[in-house]
Amino acid sequence: MGLRNYLxxxxxxxxxxxxxxxxxxxxxxxxVIPAAILTKIETVLRSLGDDRPLYSHFDLISGTSTxxxxxxxLTSRNRxxxxxxxxxxxxxxxxxxxxxxxxxxxxxxxxxxxxxxDIYITYGSIIFPRSQSLFQLQxxxxxxxxxxxxxxxxxxxxxxxxxxxxxxxxxxxxxxxxDYGNDRPYxxxxxxxxxxxIRIAARATSAAPTYFSPTTIYDxxxxxxxxxxxxxxxxxxxVLYAYKEAKxxxxxxxxxxxxxxxxxxxxYKLNPERTGNGVMSxxxxxxxxxxxxxxxxxxxxxxxxxxAAIGDLEYVRIHGDLERKIKLDDTDPEVLNHMIQAAEKxxxxxxxxxxxFCTHMVQRKMHPPRPITRNLNSEKGSR
Length: 383
Known about the structure:
The protein is globular and about 70 Å long. The protein has helices at 2-17, 32-47, 66-74, 113-127, 135-142, 151-161, 198-205, 232-235, 239-249, 279-283, 290-309, 333-349, 351-363; strands spanning 19-24, 60-64, 92-93, 102-103, 173-179, 184-189, 215-219, 224-230, 256-261, 313-318. The strands form two sheets. Strands 1, 2, 5, 6, 7, 8, 9 and 10 form an eight-stranded mixed β-sheet that branches. A two-stranded antiparallel ribbon has the order 3-4. It contains 13 helices and ten strands. Helix 2 runs antiparallel to helix 4 and helix 3 packs antiparallel against helix 7. 39% of the residues are buried. The protein has 383 residues and is of the alpha/beta class.
């Protein structure tokens, strides 16, 4: 019995020293898929007897593009009038290691997870309104301007996040953007760029080239304004940047555990016979812009392979192939329903992995994530 208790206590101590990270891919409207899976994860945690808010289980939440939007929503404080508002009666979260129970009411309830999915379904067509122009005229127009006016998108972000700033995030949060004027990845976070409004961070990480205009912010390091675009150009799967940030935030951690949620896609295999005939062959939109597809696919494969090979990183990747190609801006109700069904299948195929990951999070001592109060801007290599 003594040995059993010793081994149990040793394992609980190890879990307390570990850090848990949530990573959310980019993918436009395919954000429906990770949003739907997150509602499943919340249900799993509650079935394990833990009704703490989802965000409180993670020591860092990271995202790119649409994944950045979800991550920022997950860590938003409960605010009257927000589209994420929740009114939930909290109970006590049971301790799994015999320590004093911590009431879930000790936590800000955060957002209603189901509302994140509802926002995609209800407001997707506002972000990506269907063009009434002829296809050919629309394609020609995109050669000279961005596909979408961002007025409605900006208003939606205001309705979701209000005037909250990055420092208001409920747990350490980061999103990936790209400073194309200086050719460098740029991380917006709750611990380095605290004063940036969350709605601006959300707009920056999702400023997909050709779809939306870049976003301008003031960079205190350079003491001037910089222009940011969608982080998907450098890390559609933010796992490597999240790992790098977590190592700096938690230098004493023994091991890092990443739950990485993909926005999924239809399998893409390039037929060599369809390329190799000059620039237009690689760029031809009628062929799916093969060069873009190759860049995106190779980037994702690189992130997956490197993350899986890092010694102190457990990398749990939740991904599934879709049966059809879905564009970043497809808001057709039939397509949305297809993605929700796909999310259910993806969850079922990874149910054991997700349940095991959630069990380990629940077994950790019941305490809020350690707040990160220091500003890391002055540290060498902060970006």
